[in-house]
Amino acid sequence: MGKKFSKLSQSSSNDNENELERSNVPKPFKYVDGKRYHNVTSLRYHLPNDGDEFDRLQMQHYLSRYIWQSNFSAPVHELLRNGGEDIRVLDVGCGPGTWILEMSSDYPQTGMFHGIDIAPIFPDTIKPFNATFSIQNALEGLNFPDNHFDYVYMRFLTAAFSTEQWETIVIPELVRVTKNGGYIEIMEWDVKIYGQGPIAKRLMDSCNYQSFIYLFI
């Protein structure tokens, strides 16, 4: 199933890429040793975004959903189930759009599920009626008005931003676009190595681990 989904997403993203290449905007991708990467110099995200990476992201999504037995932890089920045209959900760093596609299908009563990413690797045409996507970079500010979303979701972007960027740009932008009384959910890996030996301890000490993660505590 992951392979089929990846090919569908990749086909749609290729259409997006071809359209961008015909325009005058900077190319969204660069290629290094045969692997495709994003071409946004302000972002520290170093993983590729080709077919193999799509498969990894799909597997990561399904593992996360299985572990938590849900696509989310915030108490928004009733809100989304009751729905309404004015209920809006945002996924920041949506990648191939798996989370948005599943959520918009699970909650068709909700007015809009919108996913953003720095590269056009999400579906362009084949998607639920209440799912939309756009190319945006959170470091440049989110292109939405204040108090716009009822629920903002973001995950697995620890390494994409510096601590300063998290504090001064990313978190403030998430707060800005969320409605008063809305929910912001950020899911990130715990990068700490447990059961450390001498070498692992030196590695974690060199990463200044405590100061890096305090933002998420």
UniProtKB/TrEMBL annotation:
Pfam families: Methyltransf_25 (PF13649). The keyword Methyltransferase applies. It comes from Rhizophagus irregularis. GO terms for biological process: methylation. The keyword Transferase applies. Coiled coil: none annotated. Keywords: Methyltransferase, Transferase. One of its GO terms (molecular function) is methyltransferase activity. Residues 89-182 form the Methyltransferase domain. This is S-adenosyl-L-methionine-dependent methyltransferase. It comes from the Eukaryota. Residues 1-25 are annotated as: Disordered.
